[in-house]
Design goal:
The protein has 290 residues and is an alpha/beta fold. It contains 11 helices and 13 strands. The strands form 2 sheets. Strands 1, 2, 3, 4, 6, 7, 8, 9, 12 and 13 form a 10-stranded mixed sheet that branches.
């Protein structure tokens, strides 16, 4: 009888052990690994959010991979990453492809306001640039504007703003936004086009060094000049303000959707603000007086 009881107890203990083992391996928002594709232009804010998430959930490992925006979107559709960071509006055809291949409703998770900025060397006499200059320059054989490459978020966004296809625009290329800043002085008649997040971190030494080398040109639109201060980003007055958002191919609440929720709540939005960008979700600060 005693042996029978022991056998029964061992049987139930083995079931519990197997259940616990399976539970450990089951997907979860607080443990596991994930890859995020992001364009170089908003790599910094993506990495900062990933680091914050991993600190809060030490059993998670997030790998941030730099990839041109268009290529990152295509690879997301082919399940090569769990999340892609986007800035441009997708076409109806792209939304359809996303919904069919990923089998999810297109629901972009917006988390920050960034900007495409036009820069010149610090000693340049140029003080501003107009929308007309930009539109004309992007059609000129002089290729006045320097981008970080084809398929990049900066080129895509400018093309979308001008209601053009990237292939129809004329421009020069220096690979990498930091390289554009560092080499722009060699081309006194050129204008660099980069993402604000490249050097938006207020107290970061590298960002300070990069900012010291160039000046951001305010953009004139309909007779008014707009710079990239927080108010103009928040109100989207600056003509090249863009909203950053996440797309995922994860259909349940595991690490990808956990990360997205974290990025869009107060803690994640504080990280966005520390990156020098405008948080998309604003939270009121309330002080209780006793």
């Amino acid at each position: 009888m005693k042996n029978s009881v022991k056998i029964i107890m061992l049987f139930f203990l083995s079931i519990i052990a197997v259940s616990c083992k399976n539970e450990d391996k089951s997907p979860s928002y607080h443990k596991g690994e994930m890859t995020i594709f992001t364009d170089e232009s908003f790599k910094s804010v993506t990495e900062a959010l990933a680091e914050g998430y991993m600190i809060n959930y030490p059993e998670t490992k997030i790998k941030v991979v730099t990839k041109k925006e268009d290529l990152g979107f295509l690879d997301l559709l082919h399940d090569k990453a769990r999340i892609a960071v986007m800035s441009r509006n997708l076409s109806p055809e792209e939304i359809k492809a996303y919904e069919e291949q990923v089998d999810l409703k297109f629901l972009p998770a917006k988390f920050a306001a960034d900007a495409v900025v036009f820069i010149v060397p610090k000693d340049s006499p140029k003080e501003s640039i107009s929308m007309e200059e930009i539109a004309q320059g992007m059609q000129s054989g002089e290729k006045t504007f320097i981008f970080d490459g084809a398929n990049s978020s900066n080129l895509n966004f400018v093309a979308q703003k001008l209601k053009k296809q990237p292939k129809d625009l004329k421009y020069s290329i220096i690979p990498g936004s930091k390289n554009i800043i560092e080499e722009l002085g060699k081309y006194p008649n050129k204008i660099g086009v980069i993402g604000l997040n490249t050097f938006s971190r207020p107290y970061d030494k590298e960002s300070e060094q990069l900012r010291s080398m160039v000046k951001i040109l305010p953009v004139e639109n309909k007779g008014k000049l707009y710079n990239t201060d927080s108010e103009n980003l928040r109100k989207m007055n600056y003509p090249f303000t863009r909203t950053l958002y996440f797309l995922t191919n994860e259909g349940n609440f595991n690490i990808a959707n956990g990360f997205i929720r974290y990025s869009c709540t107060q803690l994640g939005q504080m990280i966005v603000q520390k990156e020098g960008l405008q948080p998309y979700n604003l939270y009121r600060r309330e002080v209780q007086m006793r």
